[in-house]
Amino acid sequence: MKKTFNAFRYAGWLAIICSTFGSLLLFIVGAMKTYTAFAVVFLNEVPHNSLAHLDTADIATYYLIKSLDTFLIAFVLFIFAHGVFTLFISNKKPADADKENVLAWIKTPNIGHLKNVLAEVIVIILFVKFLEAVLVNFDHLDWKILILPVSILLLSLGLKFLNLAEESEDRIEEKE
């Protein structure tokens, strides 16, 4: 039975490969959106008629915010792929091997840590989406636009309470 579970962990390669290719694709899309921002400023191109009411700087800002959002999602996919690889595929190395690890900035000690990192980045992505929505609809804001910041606030509070619970559990384990 142990061999079956050990072999099944390699099914995680599908998630790793798809997430990595998705991340690469989104890095390219983010670069294209950044190029569009430059084209708006330097070549006077307006990509969509829906943005014609904005001036050049606002359109460029809009596309730069969209590229930021795309890059953040690309990083989420990359962190997810690395986390799945670290947790389910790679063999655990001794502590000295961590010094040579190229991706030491993405430590994934357990699945809970991976979920927290991904949830924090998702909150940031939602905040960027809110900025994008406000920028495009600045002249036509209504009460519905408040749904997104209230959602961000509730998600942030939920994350804060979850992290506090985990920290108190860690302190209890350290005392024992």
Automatic annotation (TrEMBL):
<protein>
    <recommendedName>
        <fullName>YqhA family protein</fullName>
    </recommendedName>
</protein>
<dbReference type="Pfam" id="PF03350">
    <property type="entry name" value="UPF0114"/>
</dbReference>
<dbReference type="InterPro" id="IPR005134">
    <property type="entry name" value="UPF0114"/>
</dbReference>
<keyword id="KW-0472">Membrane</keyword>
<feature type="transmembrane region" description="Helical">
    <location>
        <begin position="71"/>
        <end position="89"/>
    </location>
</feature>
<keyword id="KW-0812">Transmembrane</keyword>
<feature type="transmembrane region" description="Helical">
    <location>
        <begin position="12"/>
        <end position="32"/>
    </location>
</feature>
<feature type="transmembrane region" description="Helical">
    <location>
        <begin position="143"/>
        <end position="162"/>
    </location>
</feature>
<feature type="transmembrane region" description="Helical">
    <location>
        <begin position="117"/>
        <end position="137"/>
    </location>
</feature>
<keyword id="KW-1133">Transmembrane helix</keyword>
